[in-house]
Amino acid sequence: MRDNERGRLRRRQQQRRKSTQRMRRTKRSAVWSHFTLVNDNDAKCTICGSILKYNKSTTSLNYHLSTSHSAVLQTASGTQPTIAMALGRRVCDSTKAEGITQRICNMVTTDMLPINVVEGQGFQELIKYVEPGYNIPSRTTITTRLEASYAKKKTELRTQLATANVALTTDCWTSLTTESYITVTCHYIEPDWRVKSAVLLTESITVRHTADNLADKLNQAVETWGLTGRVVACVHDNAWNIVSANSPTRVNWHSVPCFAHTLQLAINDGFATYINRVIIAASRLVQHFNHSSLANIALKAKQQQMQLPSHKLIQSCKTRWNSVSEMFNRLTEQRWAVSAVLSDRTVTKLSDARTLELRDEYWQLMEDVAPVLETLKCATTVMSGETEVSVSDTYPITFSLINVHLKTDEEDTSKVGEFKSRVCTSLSERMKIASDDLMSTPPMIATMLDPKHKHLGFLTPPRMVTAHAKLLEVLAETEAEAECKSATSADAIGGQQELVGGRAVPVQAAGLQRRSAYALLMGENYTTRSTNDVEKEVDSFLKDPPPLLDSSPTTWWKVNEGRFPRLANLARKYLAIPGTSVPSERVFSAAGLTVNRLRTRLTPDHVDLLIFLNKNR
């Protein structure tokens, strides 16, 4: 018995020695920085506490670290080899690595982030956690890739614009570092009648924003992109410098005021009445709730108690007139909850309540003026579309507002009637409704080329006749210009000259003179027949039944282009003009404000590149 006990004791001692030796050998592996040996067969992860089987090999332990705790495999020092390297970390394959790099570039342009985002510690930790085997590219690498994308996209866009007639919009803005920029965007209609827009350039303005300097920037942009002679109009706001910059003495295109800005100015004129007192009082009330956590909590409680929607109050903003409408609507919705909070002395002091509480007549005016403001908001939204034609709606909507929605009636209170009257008068003056030149404006020509508006039912009969005569005149002039260009293009050999009448003239001028001589030889009958063809096409177009009111003019022209080829070319030219200088999400939405904030934080090094790639995706 004693011999057996001694034998068992000896065997236990030998096993302990072997286990100790094995543990010493095992601990040499870097994996034991994150594991402790529980017994001969199990090891415990010191990070998550998991128990893993250990069978004299660290393979399973390595796998656990690489899949569950890859973030800990990088070291604080960039000079020391990481544990992942010591463990033979799986390297990210080239296809996946290329995909990640491309998506990083997309992230930078989509969210308009500074390129040095790839150098941020948080970004690098994220990538290492998601894909430990991926080598994060440097700022220089990302810049090189973006510049290549920029060059490629510019070439593609230049090809698309090679023969297109375009309209321009401009946007002057200031970065957080108080640097001024101008962004120029073009709008055009493709051969398949899709409405497209593209940012041409963004340049810093280091000089005063005078009309001459702004005109120079616009002309340079047009020349750089090879658009000389193919710009129909520039849509801009009503600031005096940009209006003057687009005058005929400085540029070779039409000046079109932005409808959204014009309507906003007219509405602001209407606000400069008794309504302004209501706006000030309502803004003060909303500001109190937005700055008092106690009042805000009490408002939520009252909303639940009264079974009202759990909506926050909306503060008006001077640069977004529709926010006044939103503020009025929200206050009207939450009137009794707001009044209950102001009446609660545990929440609102009596002195504050007396200052904040709105008069009954203020509440009534907010309710009465709401339908008018909603109609004006609807008009702005319709006119601010970026992918649908809107310029042809300019005057139909303007006349509808003036003759219908802003016309006072017996049901209007005196305050609402005064607001309508002021807005109506201001809008009529700003849109130059009574001007003799109204029929010659690009928006009116576009209206006549929109099949649903072509009969101009909003005009008086004499003005209808004048407008249709103007359309015929513009079409005839366009046809003559096209024929002259066609005649001279065959003769145009850059810079060469010909002898005409014994003197040397440029080939292009010689072509024009030959064209004039040809027309003279053919006589009046030839000219008359050509004019008659134009008149017949216009007459046939006007007699054709109009489509439904909600139809798209470009969809209609895509189907009927073959029936009215001359008018189709003119429509492609004038319907490309946007109704406003800003797309719809920039007019009203919070998303538009977010875009502005993202844009203003860019560094000046790559502003043009990033905005170009962001907008021309």
Automatic annotation (TrEMBL):
GO terms for molecular function: DNA binding; protein dimerization activity; zinc ion binding. It comes from the Eukaryota. Pfam families: Dimer_Tnp_hAT, zf-BED. Coiled coil: none annotated. Keywords: DNA-binding, Metal-binding, Nucleus, Transcription, Transcription regulation, Zinc, Zinc-finger. The keyword Disulfide bond does not apply. Residues 26-76 form the BED-type domain. Its main location: nucleus. InterPro entries: HATC_C_dom, RNaseH-like_sf, Znf_BED, ZnF_BED_domain_contain, Znf_C2H2_sf. It is found in: Nucleus. Residues 1-27 are annotated as: Disordered. PROSITE patterns: ZF_BED. Residues 8-27 have a biased composition (Basic residues). GO terms for cellular component: nucleus. This is Zinc finger BED domain-containing protein 1-like.
